[in-house]
Structure formats: C-alpha cells, structure tokens
Design a protein that fits this description.
The radius of gyration is 20 Å and the shape is elongated. It has 2 domains: about 80 residues, Nucleic acid-binding proteins (OB fold (Dihydrolipoamide Acetyltransferase, E2P)), CATH 2.40.50; about 160 residues, Up-down Bundle (de novo design (two linked rop proteins)). The chain is α+β, with helices and mostly antiparallel strands and about 250 residues long. It contains 6 helices and 8 strands. The strands form 2 sheets. The protein has a 5-stranded mixed beta barrel with strand order 1-2-3-5-4. A 3-stranded antiparallel sheet has the order 7-6-8, with no helix packed on it. Helix 4 crosses helix 5. The chain binds zinc ion. Zinc ion binds next to strand 7.
Length: about 250
C-alpha cells in the first residue's frame, strides 16, 4: 500500500554504498523503518542523502508491517538552519529524537507528539533556550505515551503541592511515578530530594521559562533518572546534555 505522510527522520544507518535504512517518525502512521534505495546517489527521489531531522512530505510502500517499508519519495522541507552552530542545542535535539525512537512503537501514531517534536526542533534551532525546550518536550512525550508522573501532588498520599503548603518538602520517586511528600518519603528508597524551585517548576511547567540554569539542570537530571528507570538503561544522549558545556 502506498501511503503519504509527513515525517521527521530520527535515525539513519547505511545499508549499502547507495542506500540507507531510515527510521521516520510520521504524523499519522507513527514510527516506521524504511529502506531508502539509492538515497546516497547524487540524483535520488529524496533530495539528497537523508539525515537525522530531515523532514517533509513522504510517500512509502509497505506490503507487511513485519518487513521494512520502502521509502518512495521524500520532499524535504528546508533543513533547520543553525543546528551545527550550537552543539548543546544539537545534542538536545538528538536526545529528543532518541527518546521518540525508544519510547514509541512502530505504527502507533501520536499526531500531537509529532507536532510538538517538530515545534521543539524548530524553536531550538531558532536559538531559544534549549534546556527549557528539552524539558517541556520530555514532559509532553511522557504525557503522550501515558507515562507522565504525578507532579502537582504527592503520588502516594495525594497532598497537593501548591502555594499553601510551601513549607512541605518534596521528593521525586520513579517507582512512585511522581512527587513524594516529606511524610511519605521514608517508604520510597529511590527518592531524590527536590529543591523548592524544581518542585514548583514540575508542578507548574509555565515556571520553566523563567527558571535558573541550576534548577533546569536539576529537573533534567530527575527526568534522565526517570527515563533510565523506564528504559532500564540510560539514554545514550543523556551524558551530552548533562555535562557542562556552552549553553545556548
Ligand atoms: Zn505524601
């Protein structure tokens, strides 16, 4: 069956001298693995070799979902412009792509996740603060795949985290899937203590835009810990996002 879709390339590997295996996150079909025959030839149906973050309109053919689909066309939209100028922003985008690849299933569409991934790539490459955008995208991803932690109340006793209980201590526990209050923390050996700023930002994501770098790093560490628990391994790109480097 020939299918048209909109796609973002999230992984490529060389298949032969001239062809690539390309993992695409598509808007209406979900993630698909395709073979792009002849994509590395100077003249191909794909506007040149496909790279991670190539995006645009595709046509693909799949006879069976058990086998690789064949990419027939890829009309590439203009590439994100400045990704090569800012290594940290590029690493944040690669981390986003890795998480989409690891946490979504083939042929399981998430159109809203697709839209926010495209927007995340766009905004990051426009030079907006990459760490803030990465955190917001990671929270959207967790929500879309049904794994969003409870972030506005204690996941155990449901005490709400709000302005009236600012004296409460809050922790994050991956096993509890959310925040844990000071009264419950003893039951969760995997808990990590949160600063008040980090707990506030997690409870109200709007605060992330004005958060200090220290708070953003703290939250990203918590999210990486959570993704590591979900995947049973640390995401490959995690260390590039947490190592201190120049931040855009
Ligand atoms: Zn509690």
């Amino acid at each position: 069956m020939l299918t048209k879709d909109t796609a973002i390339c999230i992984r490529t590997t060389d298949y032969s001298e001239t062809s690539q295996i390309v993992t695409l996150f598509t808007r209406t079909t979900g993630k698909i693995s395709t073979i792009a025959k002849g994509s590395k030839r100077p003249k191909s149906a794909f506007d040149g070799p496909l790279e991670v973050f190539s995006h645009g309109q595709i046509v693909f053919f799949d006879s069976s979902r058990e086998k690789l689909a064949t990419l027939a066309e890829f009309q590439q939209a203009p590439a994100f412009s400045c990704k090569a100028d800012n290594l940290f922003a590029l690493n944040c985008c690669l981390f986003g792509a890795e998480l989409v690849n690891s946490l979504t299933h083939d042929y399981d569409p998430h159109p809203e996740l697709f839209d926010s991934f495209l927007q995340f790539l766009h905004d990051t490459n426009e030079g907006q603060k990459a760490m803030t955008l990465l955190i917001l995208f990671q929270l959207t991803l967790l929500r879309e795949i049904g794994l969003i932690p409870i972030l506005n109340a204690c996941a155990n006793c449901k005490t709400s985290h709000g302005p009236r209980v600012t004296s409460h201590e809050f922790y994050f526990s991956s096993s509890a899937n959310g925040l844990i209050c000071g009264d419950c923390e003893a039951s969760f050996p995997d808990k990590i203590k949160l600063s008040k700023n980090a707990a506030d930002c997690l409870a109200n994501a709007k605060l992330l835009k004005g958060a200090e770098e220290k708070t953003l790093n703290e939250i990203e560490k918590i999210l990486i810990h959570h993704f590591t628990e979900i995947l049973h391994r640390q995401p490959r790109m995690a260390k590039y996002v947490l190592s201190s480097g120049d931040r855009g």
